[in-house]
Amino acid sequence: MQELPLVFFTVIGQLSAGMILLSGLFYLVSRSPTKLAITRRIYAVSLIFMMIGMGVASLHLGQPLRALNVIFGIGRSPMSNEIFTFCLSFGIAFAFVILNHFVLYPDSTKLKIIKPLCQKINRIPGLNYLLATMLVILSQLFVWSIVQTYMLPTIKTWNTHYTAIQMYTAMLVLGGIAVTWLGLYRIGYCAFFIGSSVILLVKRPYLELMTSIAPELANNQHDLNVIQCRLLIGAMVLLLLTILCRRHPKILYLLVFIGVFVAEICERITFYNLWMITI
């Protein structure tokens, strides 16, 4: 399908947004002495995902050089806002990671050229809290801009409140399991179970609505919907077992993350397959 790059970009984007949101909230409210190291590690991994997302998104551009035209639509175009908030989030997260490298490793010999500048910037009171707050806000604005991009009046299957629910729950389940894998357990568990529960609870009314709008298209997505639900239920069961056993097996978390990622890819393919123009 031609929209496959967009499928991966939106899912990876929401994954990154979830990681940034949850780790940012953790940094703002936690009193743990290790919160800076954990937050920096999660931001660093989210940057890797964001770079992958940008690379995948570039495959959808017929003329990549024209992507710079996005700056002329900021504020009035949801797609421009989506790209702008994504890039701004990347820049701020990157700054957080680089600046705090010298806080955590003051004797580091890496990046010696920018070390004096970073150390001066780090003297600004409350800088990390400011950056974390900005990232929490930007992560929400990014996902909302995706919702705005797809809630088009001419596409009845997309122009419903379920579009917003799908985008935000994807952020919660993907971000939740990702930060759990990276060592942020409580907030990761909460985000994942809340997101997964909402997805499963609204699946039936969502499918009923889609069937009433586009019966043939909706019926063709049956297998993908079943795969998504089964993977999410399996992930929930495995995480419940780890909670009951009070263990944190990294390999299991990684496998669950892969399963959840595949589940959300299935959901997003279904979403794009329901595209139809109505007059």
TrEMBL record:
The chain crosses the membrane at residues 6-30, 42-63, 83-105, 126-147, 167-184, 189-207, 227-245, 252-275. The keyword Membrane applies. GO terms for cellular component: dimethyl sulfoxide reductase complex; plasma membrane. The keyword Protein biosynthesis does not apply. InterPro entries: DmsC (IPR007059). One of its GO terms (biological process) is anaerobic electron transport chain. Keywords: Membrane, Transmembrane, Transmembrane helix. Coiled coil: none annotated. This is Dimethyl sulfoxide reductase. It comes from Gilliamella apicola. The lineage of its organism: Bacteria, Pseudomonadati, Pseudomonadota, Gammaproteobacteria, Orbales.
